[in-house]
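Re: [help] complex structure
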Amino acid sequence: MLPARFALAIRLLHWTMAALIIAMLFIGIAMVSTAGPAYSALLALHRPLGIAILLLGCIRLAIRIGTRAPPLPDDLPRAQARAARVSHILLYLAMIGLPLIGWAMLSAGSYPVRLGAGWVLPPILPPCARAFGLLRELHALVAFAFFALILVHLTAGLVHGFVRRDGVLATMGFGRNATLEPSAAETSETLEEDEARAPAGEAQTPPLPA
Ligand code: HEM
Ligand code: HEM
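Output below.
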């Protein structure tokens, strides 16, 4: 029997992390648009929240690989299903990669990654001014690409929920009325199974839908 919705832990993590990530994008932009004590105060918030996103992202990925995902609707065009799958992989990459870039950037700049309450993370790169400059640019670039991807993802979610009304939005929701069409149920699989099947050109719906 295949699920009509994502695992509860995935749904809880999805919405908690969505709020954290959107807050972090605005904290980051506010931080680089200011100077003086406000910069330090925002950075003191940005570092631990970013590391929390890194941790939650790893936990989420592990749960996602180990659980079954609901299928996409059968009538969704194949290109859209593929776009959904690729965009979800990119979202996972950004959730985990962006905080790592931030941590590496501060390490290369010889800045301690303080999390508060006396906790300091060890550096993950040796001091290097050139790497610091490159990673600083990369962090901003990936953050803006992440922002753009989130806007596309949000739009897709709302189109599924309010234009197509195909039940996809409910797969990430907490309502009582999530239903699954029997034909669609047969196509559900784990992330690993889907990765293995994708190159073979399976016509069925992938498990990382939009
Ligand atoms: C998902 C997590 C994260 C998001 C969404 C995020 C987002 C951002 C954004 C939007 C900026 C402004 C970029 C610009 O316009 O130049 C920024 C700057 C910055 N971020 Fe992050 N960040 C994340 C994680 C981290 C982590 C974990 C660290 C360090 C441990 C970090 C350290 C920094 C620093 C030091 C800056 C300021 C760079 C400068 O002054 O030019 N970030 N971040
Ligand atoms: C920072 C913001 C967000 C991120 C990083 C994010 C990330 C993701 C990822 C990676 C998935 C794939 C499911 C998984 O394997 O975990 C997903 C699914 C989903 N997201 Fe988001 N999401 C964000 C915000 C939103 C928002 C604001 C909406 C509201 C429309 C939304 C609606 C959905 C829906 C409906 C699904 C299920 C798609 C399906 O079953 O095909 N997400 N999200």
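The two ends are 22 Å apart (CA to CA).
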